[in-house]
């Protein structure tokens, strides 16, 4: 069995005539956290969205090259996108709970995927809320609206919703950018815990966050993956002067 969960080979992505990603080669090992860093508009989120084919929702997208998740090319005609998205969960920048109860928010993905056994749903919902470090705060109000939770709690609820469908990979697109420092700290602690069971790829503009939470860091600039290595090397001894300038705050 390969130790890689995600593998990208010679990936080019175009929005119409604009090339957003240029010959990207990248891999993510199992049970690691990789941070994507770089200035706005450099391709970080675009690459992240290729792993669960969220770019399919955008008109005029054209892709060349290969993206593998667990050894399967996700752009193969045989791949069912809804099955892929079960395997590759996503947490967005702003918490996006549904206007339902806390319990039903987490149960939603299970019901959509055809699970109707009440005991299975209850077990999975409780386990996911516990895993997302939210249980102690919500265990007595599972029937209350998720909209009553704070922003940080809502984001952990969205993580619980992602965990409930038991993915292998969790994509996080700036999951703490809308949160206060205390809530951000809780999300970062949670990422540390979750990597025991999942492969996590996170887009972040926060350099300190990248250095705290990730094992590997990839630096993007103008659609190119300039450099990708262990987080320690990227921050302490990068090979490329552009990386050096970015991580030391000289540009970006």
Sum this structure up briefly.
By secondary structure, this protein is of the alpha/beta class.
Describe the structure.
The relative contact order is 0.18. The chain has a domain at 4-99 and 169-247: Rossmann fold (3-Layer(aba) Sandwich). It is of the alpha/beta class and 252 residues long. The protein has helices spanning 44-50, 81-87, 102-112, 118-131, 135-138, 151-164, 181-194, 207-213, 231-236, 241-247, and strands at residues 4-15, 18-29, 33-37, 61-69, 72-73, 88-91, 169-173, 199-203, 216-221, 224-230. Helix 3 crosses helix 4, helix 4 (118-131) crosses helix 6 and helix 6 (151-164) runs parallel beside helix 7. Strands 6-7-8-3-9-10 form a six-stranded mixed beta sheet, sandwiched between helices. A four-stranded antiparallel beta sheet has the order 2-1-4-5, with helices on one face. It has ten helices and ten strands. The mean pLDDT is 94.
């Amino acid at each position: 069995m390969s130790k890689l969960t995600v593998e990208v080979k010679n990936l080019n992505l175009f929005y119409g005539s604009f090339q957003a990603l240029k010959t990207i080669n990248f891999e993510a090992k199992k049970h690691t956290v990789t941070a994507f860093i770089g200035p706005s508009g450099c391709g970080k989120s675009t690459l992240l969205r290729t792993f669960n084919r969220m770019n399919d929702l955008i008109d005029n997208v054209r892709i060349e090259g290969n993206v593998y998740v667990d050894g399967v090319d996700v752009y193969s005609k045989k791949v069912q996108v809804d099955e892929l998205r079960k395997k590759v969960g996503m947490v967005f920048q702003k918490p996006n709970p549904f206007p339902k109860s806390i319990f039903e928010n987490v149960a939603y993905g299970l019901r959509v995927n055809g699970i109707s056994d009440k005991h299975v749903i209850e077990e999975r919902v409780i386990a996911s809320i516990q895993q997302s470090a939210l249980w102690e705060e919500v265990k007595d109000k599972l029937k209350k609206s998720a909209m009553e939770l704070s922003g940080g709690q809502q984001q952990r609820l969205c993580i619980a919703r992602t965990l409930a469908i038991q993915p292998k990979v969790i994509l996080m697109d700036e999951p703490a950018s809308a949160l206060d420092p205390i809530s951000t700290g809780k999300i970062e602690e949670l990422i540390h815990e979750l990597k025991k069971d999942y492969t996590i790829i996170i887009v972040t503009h926060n350099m300190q966050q990248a250095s705290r939470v990730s094992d590997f860091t990839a630096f993007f600039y103008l659609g190119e993956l300039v450099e990708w290595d262990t987080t320690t090397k990227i921050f302490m001894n990068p090979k490329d002067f552009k990386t050096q300038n970015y991580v030391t705050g000289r540009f970006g």
